[in-house]
Amino acid sequence: MSKVELIKELSNAFGPSGFEDEVCEIVKRELKDFENIEEDTLRNIRCELKQNSGKYKIMLDSHIDEVGIIVQAIKQNGTMNFLTLGRWAETSLPSSKFNIKNIDGDLIESVVAIKPPHFMSVEEKSNTLTISNMVLDCGALNDKEVKDYYKLKIASPGVPAVKCVYDEKKQTFLGKAFDCRIGVAAEIEVMKRLQNKKLNVDVSAAFSSQEEVGHRGVYNNVEKIQPKIAICFEGCPADDTFMEPYMIQSALNKGSMLRNFDVTMITNPRFQKYSIDLANKLNIPVQESVRSGGGTDGAAIHLKDIPTIVIGIPVRYIHSSHGFTTLHDFDAAVDLAVAICENITEEIIDSF
Fold first, then answer.
1. Does residue 84 share a domain with residue 58?
2. Report field, pTM of the whole predicted structure over 0.85
3. C-alpha angle 314/317/320, rounded to 5°?
């Protein structure tokens, strides 16, 4: 399968936090030629290169879950209250179409709805929209129809009903879940490119669950792999459509983004410098950022005394139903991670 088709398949896969099974099957299929493939009950996946031989270990990481929703309660009128799995841009939700998985595993198309403006009071019209003002509507006329005909129930999970499309001329993707399926695809591509390389270090891959609800899966991956350093892949928020030019730090088609700081991690400055210097030396496009918000699996990893960098692939409008990302930035992220794994030594790691 080509990398473009893999990115599209991963984007289309159903996999909100806690319900990542479909993504797991894709990842395991792509990793079938690697060693010690493991899957745990959290739906984390781990594997390693065949040539690993007990040297210092680099852990690659990306998270397989996406932001989604979960049914909280079913009303008598057939609409449903819901909660979010992960943090959404809540004002983007009304009128969005979602696929809700029923008890048979079928996807039921539903719409996030709000009270029409015709029925809103003056106060309601001026209030900020929140999840509590929204319902999920599958077209049912009553609660019995929701349960018996559509076979939906409390805790049924959902994701945006969006199919990924690719503009071959512009090499641009439009789809859902690029946070972090674009990172998952990048990690798989890196492992494939390293498959027959002679390296000075060992490389293990971790595909972590439930990042969007608190970095839950990565803790077990770190414990199992016990790496010396880590490279996280992330679908990071692009800022090129709403920031002043001097503040743009994660633009589309400018390469991957390495964050120096966010609210959960100060990136190890020595590992960060090594990576950026290597990118510049090899003419691999790279951007840097200092973020006033956000967080990644790197937050959990670096607290275990593991120097960690985050290679972000810019995505416009993450944590909403649709996002744009580019093959150019995907390739830049892969090239940088491969270069680090090919060039780094145990002595360099000790200097971090």
1. no
2. yes
3. 130
